[in-house]
Write a structure and sequence with these properties.
The complex is a heterotrimer of chains A (221), B (230) and C (267). By secondary structure, chain A is mostly helical. Chain A has one domain: Orthogonal Bundle (MetI-like fold). Chain A is flat. The C terminus of chain A is likely disordered. Chain B is mainly alpha-helical and 230 residues long. Chain B has a domain of 158 residues: MetI-like (MetI-like fold). The longest helix of chain B is centred in the N-terminal third of the chain and has 41 residues. The relative contact order of chain B is 0.15. Chain C has 267 residues and is an alpha/beta fold. Chain C has two domains: 176 residues, P-loop containing nucleotide triphosphate hydrolases (Rossmann fold, 3-Layer(aba) Sandwich); 65 residues, no CATH class. In chain C, strand 7, helix 6 and strand 8 form a beta-alpha-beta unit. The mean pLDDT of chain C is 90. The chains are: A mainly alpha (221), B mainly alpha (230), C alpha/beta (267). Chains A and B meet through helix 2, helix 3, helix 6, helix 7 and helix 8 of A and helix 3, helix 7 and helix 8 of B.
């Protein structure tokens, strides 16, 4: 087998990796906004639940979470197929880290903006979505970019719960060919290329958000 | 039975308590791996950061590419790479050392960025003042730059220690018997994964929380104006 | 005639610090009142309480017969959000730092609240907004973003934004303090025009003494959370009674007379 013949299985694995990464980034983003907003809410119950979720998933290793959902949960009668488990756990983890980003960005909106909104009699919900969020989202983008890359790298662990992602395919190839150097070099390059695409995508979204001359915040205000 | 400790599976609670000493042995491995890995990351990261500032374009550019590459690829694959490829070059390390090396390598890419950011954050005027006072390069770094860098970089470096701690379970994949490795073995033998895996999570949680709290306390205790080395 | 604003023994504390202590103050409908005094004397707090940006602990405050506290009101404001919402319908505020929304065009800054809060139709709100922007001399800037405007222009937009909500009481919290000296005039010009509006009650915190003398019906001098002296501007400035007032006026006017003089020429 020459190295070009490694490409087909690796590409198949890469496809799985990209799918899992994109799915868990998307679901993670929704969770991040939900938990991040809940954290800033004055409702003690909501913010308490969000806090527990964030602490639990940020404070424990991803691999432990994966194994827990994959090996331990079925023992109490709750089981999902590997891909669902992988996407679920990665989404929860990305969401927990993202929630802190959302919360931080919301808190960084100047209090004077909230006072102006109050003086104009906007409701709290309206202020959140039309005044705070549009300004906060821009602040979140660089951190979200880092989280997306982190998420991509974390997907490698799903190979350990028998999902045929890029790392899994690399392991199988190595076991057949014993050509470790070539296989893992190609795999690393594969991840790097996917990471570059992710970075460009995030930059593109950030640029779209920054459309118009409204940002960065002006020197006058 | 493991390391001379028998487990008692009669109730989840007795099971949890009986495997605690075994997991404690794994915890020591986890902590050692993190300590060695972190030491490598602190030193090698500094080397990378200084090379990155080299005036020779080829060096700084190569180092920049290397750190970016290491930052953007998974620890697990890097670990496999070292674990399987190093022996082909005659470098045979115990699994633990390979694991610590992989951790150290990945995190040196992070720490080098922290150092770099710290150096760049020292205002230009400070460098100019040092030049105006005729300080040598060593004196400039030792007395002017590094003291001002410390309060900036310590919190970031601390956060990476916590992240690294949480990534050590990956080492169990290459046969290192850390907490997760042992928990999996117990699971295999007793057919009960729920208790051992939950215990690992429960041990990690306070550990990372306390570390984070400590870092926060240190961050607040550090004077923002810098810490003189002499 | 009933006063539109009535403070009765209002006490406001920040932690251990008492900013307003048994404060009594009334403003008549359509009256233009200027509040002056050293910083930290509580004059801005009076405006912020009226705008419901700050709660107060004791005493009674009424706006057009409506009490700020509700009999069974809870929370720091001792009133429901709905009640505060009703009060705010009558009050508008112009901030020292303008506080325009940076992500909205000038026009949207003015249109947003009437559409979202007053449920006005968007095209109706826009034609009104353009009219207001013309009044402050900025109709040609309607599609620009706040960051593209000078401080003076931003403050004029902020005034238009506050007016778009048709407040009966308009509060100005040091509207020119954040401006470069050469931009103060254009903002004062707009406020001066507004002062001719018969129905609008205006409360103005400012350090522009000459301007205060010119536009207000009454000047109040604040010190340490109390009104030390008040009266019609002519008498207040030409013949202050209290030593504390004289001291303050001489410290402000004495130092700044040349600057004020050149400003007056610019107006």
């Amino acid at each position: 087998m020459t190295w070009t013949q490694y490409l087909m299985p690796l590409l198949k694995g890469a496809q799985v990796t990209v799918t899992i990464s994109l799915a868990s980034i998307a679901i993670g983003a929704v969770l991040a906004f939900a938990a991040g907003i809940a954290r800033t809410s004055s409702n003690r119950f909501l913010s308490g639940i969000a806090f527990a979720y964030i602490v639990l998933f940020r404070g424990t290793p991803l691999l432990v979470q994966l194994f827990w959902f994959y090996y331990a949960l079925p023992l109490i009668g709750i089981s999902f197929d590997p891909v669902t488990t992988g996407i679920m756990v990665l989404s929860l983890l990305t969401g927990a880290f993202g929630a802190e980003v959302v919360r931080g960005a919301l808190l960084s909106v100047p209090p004077s903006q909230l006072e102006a909104a109050r003086a104009l009699n906007f409701s709290k919900t309206y202020t959140l979505w039309h005044i705070s969020m549009p300004q906060a989202v821009i602040e979140m983008m660089p951190a979200f970019g880092n989280l997306a890359i982190q998420n991509l790298k974390d997907t490698a662990l799903v190979s350990l719960i028998s999902i045929a992602d890029l790392t899994f395919q690399a392991q199988s190839l190595r076991n057949i060919t014993l050509d470790s150097a070539t296989v893992y070099t190609l795999t690393l390059i594969g991840y790097f290329l996917i990471a570059l695409c992710l970075m460009f995508a995030m930059r593109f979204i950030e640029m779209k958000l920054r459309r118009g001359p409204a940002f960065p915040r002006s020197a006058h205000s | 039975m493991m390391y001379g400790y028998a487990w008692d599976t009669s109730t989840p609670l007795t099971f949890a308590l009986s495997i605690l000493p075994i997991l404690g042995i794994g915890l020591m491995v986890t902590l050692k791996a993190a300590a060695v890995g972190y030491a490598i990351a602190l030193v090698f990261g500094l080397v990378l950061a200084l090379l990155r500032r080299s005036r020779i374009k080829a060096i700084s550019w190569t180092v920049a590419c290397f750190t970016e590459f290491v930052r953007d690829t998974p620890l697990l694959v890097q670990l496999f790479f070292l674990y399987y490829v190093l022996p082909e070059f005659g470098i045979i390390l115990p699994a633990f050392m390979t694991g610590a090396l992989a951790l150290g390598l990945q995190y040196s890419a992070y720490t080098s960025e922290v150092y770099r950011g710290g150096i760049n954050a020292v205002p230009r005027g400070q460098w100019e003042a040092a030049t105006a006072l005729n300080l040598s390069r060593l004196q400039t770094y030792r007395d002017i730059v590094v003291p001002q860098m410390i309060p900036r970089i310590v919190p970031a470096l601390g956060n990476y220690l916590v992240s690294m701690l949480k990534e050590t379970p990956v080492l169990s994949v290459v046969t290192v018997l850390d907490m997760l490795g042992l928990a999996n073995m117990i699971g295999e033998r007793t057919f009960d994964y729920l208790v051992p895996l939950s215990m690992v999570g429960l041990i990690f949680l306070p550990m990372t929380l306390i570390c984070s709290a400590l870092i926060f306390a240190i961050e607040r205790a550090l004077p923002k104006s810098g810490i003189p080395l002499r | 005639m009933n006063p539109i604003i009535r403070f009765e023994n209002v006490t406001k504390r920040f932690g251990a610090l008492t900013v307003l202590d048994n404060f009594n103050f009334e403003v008549q409908r359509g009256e233009k009142v200027t509040l002056i005094g050293p910083s930290g004397s509580g004059k801005s707090t009076v405006l912020r309480i009226l705008m419901t940006l700050e709660p107060f602990q004791d005493g009674h405050l009424e706006l057009d017969g409506t009490s700020y506290h509700e009999p069974n009101g809870r929370g720091p404001f001792k009133a429901s959000e709905k009640h505060l919402h009703k009060i705010r319908c009558s009050v508008g505020m112009v901030f020292q730092s303008f506080n325009l929304f940076p992500h909205m065009t000038v026009l949207r800054n003015v249109v947003e609240a009437p559409v979202a809060v007053l449920k006005m139709k968007r095209d109706e709100a826009e034609s009104r907004a353009i009219e207001l922007l013309r009044m402050v001399g900025l109709s040609d800037k309607k599609d620009q973003f706040p960051s593209q405007l000078s401080g003076g222009q931003q403050q004029r937009v902020a005034i238009a934004r506050a007016l778009a909500m048709r407040p009966r009481v308009l509060l100005f919290d040091e509207p020119t303090s954040a401006l470069d000296p050469q931009l103060v005039g254009e903002v004062l010009g707009v406020i001066r025009d507004l002062a001719h509006e018969h129905d609008l009650t205006m409360l103005l915190v400012t350090h522009e003494m000459r301007f205060a003398r010119e536009v207000s019906d009454r000047v109040c001098f604040f010190d340490k959370g109390r009104i030390v002296e008040q009266g019609d501007p002519e008498r207040f400035f030409s013949n202050p009674q209290q030593p504390r007032t004289r001291e303050f006026l001489s410290s402000i006017l004495g130092d700044q007379e040349p600057v004020r003089e050149s400003l007056r020429c610019a107006l």
